[in-house]
Write a structure and sequence with these properties.
heterodimer, A: 2 domains, B: alpha+beta, Phosphorylase Kinase, domain 1, Aminoglycoside 3'-phosphotransferase, Chain: A, domain 2
């Protein structure tokens, strides 16, 4: 295993130091930059925590939508490949309107779950505001 | 000073240009400083002293020119200047356009100057800080009136002949544009495709074309302690569906966190709609507005992807652009929520 602290831990303490130690001494134009840095670190932290769970879930659900037996997804490369293939197919079918009503409703639920997971990483406050 | 000006001393070069443009005897330029914001254009604050002519005295100006890279659909400076003049002529409160320079030998790139208006445009301040904007209801009503004045401009207009007519309708043209762009994008975007398919099924038929601002929202107008001082950022203006501007203004993605205040995060819709209908004689069509509010999220998602791509491609590394790229998730989420199928 790697040495401690972990990368996620380093991101967390870096963000805290930025906000508590650096930010208070900054002029307005630099404050905006510092807050953006904090936001970028926050997203990276959440990504590190959730890994590729959302991509795996999307691939599994979309494979099921198409009645496909998805092989076990091992490494994250496999997940990315499966995600791209299935997302490309779904995107094409949504545009051409070839899915029936029931499949479209299922597709919406898959997309909604995926979008919710992504907002959970990028801006959970937006999602939680309802 | 940076900004890609070719002149060794842009202040002096600008002063020389302004003598002819403002019909003055002499002009001196003092402050010449880049203003923040503007991912597509650069704005520079210019303080000039004019001797002689109709503008004699001290002039507070903004010089607007191209940023290093811009979104493909935004207008060049000459077109933007023509649009600003048309809006000014229709009585819309805008920074008065004063001079256009297409001669690259002056500063190295085309630019125009307009009067600088006072106040702030920052969305989080306009929606939250009571020091600014005067009365919020009055501000919303005023903005409705401003938009109605703009929408009185209908084609054909000779000075705006460069604007193309969206065909077969503004909605259908927008959907075709976004799909075309997505076809060249590096990743599939099924959530956006969902939204665009929903919009394509419901695209309203053509109902009279008007001059739309196409970025009329909180963050793009200036306010001071008393209220509105100017509508800004005309780079996307074009012929379109009047309800597109209304929907863009009210869309949740432009409420700066004040989600309950549906008119731009400043107040409820009633005051904004009232001002619009009182000034323009065009009725607000709520169903059409709702359609364009969903479209607003699709459009903003595509723009956010484009801005993120400027960073991702390596052409313009920028934290601001990078974070904009990550706003796509919330825009897609909102678009999905607005387009839920009955069976789901």
């Amino acid at each position: 295993m790697r040495d401690r602290p972990s990368g996620a831990d380093l991101l967390a303490i870096a963000r805290r130091t930025l906000l508590e130690t650096v930010l208070p001494g900054l002029a307005d134009d630099r404050r905006i930059a510092a807050l953006m840095i904090a936001r970028a670190i926050e997203i990276a932290e959440r990504e590190a925590a959730s890994g590729d769970a959302a991509q795996r879930a999307f691939a599994a659900a979309t494979a099921m939508l198409y009645g496909e037996a998805l092989p076990a997804l091992g490494r994250s490369d496999d997940v990315a490949t499966a995600w791209r293939r299935l997302a490309t197919r779904l995107a094409r079918d949504l545009r051409s309107g070839t899915l029936d009503r029931e499949k479209r409703a299922k597709a919406w639920r898959i997309l909604m779950a995926d979008a919710e997971a992504r907002v959970g990483e990028s801006n959970p406050r937006y999602r939680d505001a309802g | 000073m940076s900004g890609g000006f070719s002149a060794a001393d842009p202040g002096t070069a600008l002063a020389r240009f302004l003598i002819g443009a403002l019909d003055a005897r002499s002009v001196t330029v003092g402050r010449f400083a880049k203003l923040s914001g503007g991912a597509i254009q650069e704005n520079w604050a210019v303080d000039a002293t004019v001797n002689g002519g109709p503008h004699a005295g001290k002039l507070a100006l903004v010089l607007r020119t191209d940023a290093p890279s811009g979104v493909a659909v935004s207008h060049g400076r000459a077109h933007e200047y023509a649009i600003l003049r048309a809006a000014h002529g229709a009585g819309v409160t805008v920074p008065e356009p004063l001079a256009l320079c297409e001669d690259r030998s002056v500063l190295g790139k085309p630019f125009y100057v307009m009067r600088r208006v006072a106040g702030t445009a920052a969305g989080h301040i306009v929606t939250r800080d009571d020091k600014w904007k005067g009365d919020r209801g009055a501000l919303a009503e005023r903005l409705g009136r401003e938009l109605a004045k703009l929408h009185r401009i209908v084609p054909p207009v000779d000075s705006l002949a460069f604007l193309t007519m969206p065909k077969p309708s503004p909605a259908a043209a927008a959907i075709a544009d976004y799909r075309h762009w997505l076809d060249g994008y590096r990743d599939p975007r099924p959530a956006l495709e969902w939204g665009l398919a929903w919009l394509a099924e419901r695209a309203p038929a053509l109902d009279g074309m008007v001059l739309c601002h196409r970025d009329f929202r909180t963050g793009n107008y200036m306010v001071d302690e008393h209220g509105l001082t100017g509508v800004l950022d005309w780079e996307f203006a074009g012929w379109g569906d009047a309800m597109e501007d209304v929907g863009w203004f009210c869309a949740r993605c432009w409420r700066f966190g004040q989600t309950a205040r549906e008119a731009g995060g400043i107040t409820d819709r009633a005051a904004f709609y009232r001002g619009y209908e009182a000034e323009g004689g065009r009725r607000i069509d709520p169903a059409r507005v709702a359609f364009w509010e969903a479209m607003a999220h699709a459009r903003w998602a595509v723009i956010a992807l484009q801005q993120g791509e400027r960073h991702v491609s390596g052409s313009e590394p920028s934290l601001d652009l990078a974070l904009t790229g990550r706003r796509v998730a919330e825009l897609e989420w909102e678009l999905l929520r607005m387009t839920q199928p009955e069976a789901a």
